[in-house]
Design a protein that fits this description.
Helix content: under 10%
Number of domains: 2
Order of helices and strands: HEEEEEEEEEEEEEEE
Distance between the termini: 83 Å
Largest sheet: 5 strands, mixed, barrel
Strand content: 35-45%
Strand order of the largest sheet: 3-4-6-8-7
């Protein structure tokens, strides 16, 4: 008999935002009771760094902290590493995950993002991002992994700092191939190097930004970072 999981409650942000995310996952689990039923399983533990993180048959209304490390073949599915909740941090320091959380040391989770179910057909989340997931079962692999459910929206387009780091200018018969180092908007973290522009360029020479810092917009596609706009403009001359 399936006992419905209870919702989380919070009185202030950011815990309200986290509670809403977790409650969407709980609603999905309660809709499909098979995910949270305590059926049999062929494994006894999911291990991380020699320590049993999840015991046989465990079902939890709480969350597991997981870091996305790679995309799986199936859309909306990611490989992940579970972190133990042993956070030691200071309220005065800027957030820098994992904030003292203990890394399990291996890829021990299959993460399903419920907001990427069909027909999205892609991977929208940034790799190395952290999420709170609910345990829904275990994989049937020879080395089983925990199956964690999350409900995370993709970032869509977001502003970034950029700096040209490679490629070449276009010609009358070929488009430019400039690439960029991409950093967070405040410049504090590098998100990627040699990042391509995803939007098609026309043939011809392009003028790139020379300001420092320069800005653009980026997005993630199948776990890879791409630029949508690098501020390039067509190189033109006066008509004669």
């Amino acid at each position: 008999m399936h006992t419905p999981l209870s919702h989380w409650n919070a009185s202030s942000r950011p815990w309200q935002d986290i509670a809403r995310q977790v409650n969407r996952i709980i609603d999905q689990i309660n809709t499909n009771s098979g995910l949270s039923a305590g059926g049999t399983t062929s494994i006894s533990r999911v291990f991380g760094a020699g320590t049993a993180l999840i015991q046989h048959g465990q079902r939890s209304a709480g969350g597991f902290i997981v870091k996305l490390t790679a995309v799986e073949t199936g859309a909306g599915k990611y490989a992940g590493r579970i972190f133990s909740p042993n956070c030691q941090t200071s309220p005065s320091a800027n957030l820098a995950m994992p904030e003292g959380l203990a890394d399990s040391g291996n890829t021990n989770a299959l993460v399903l993002n419920l907001l990427e179910s069909a027909p999205s057909g892609t991977h929208l989340l940034a790799l190395n991002s952290f999420h709170i997931g609910l345990l829904a079962g275990y994989t049937a692999e020879s080395t089983p992994r925990a199956v964690l459910l999350i409900a995370a929206a993709g970032a869509g387009l977001f502003p970034v700092q950029i700096e040209k780091d490679g490629g070449a200018d276009g010609t009358p018969t070929a488009p430019a191939t400039w690439t960029y180092t991409v950093r967070t908007l405040d410049g504090s973290q590098t998100l990627g190097t040699l990042v391509s522009v995803g939007r098609p360029r026309p043939n011809g020479s392009r003028i790139v930004q020379t300001a420092s810092p320069a800005y653009g917009t980026a997005f993630y596609s199948s776990g890879s970072l791409l630029l949508w706009d690098a501020g390039e403009i067509a190189a033109t001359t006066a008509c004669s």
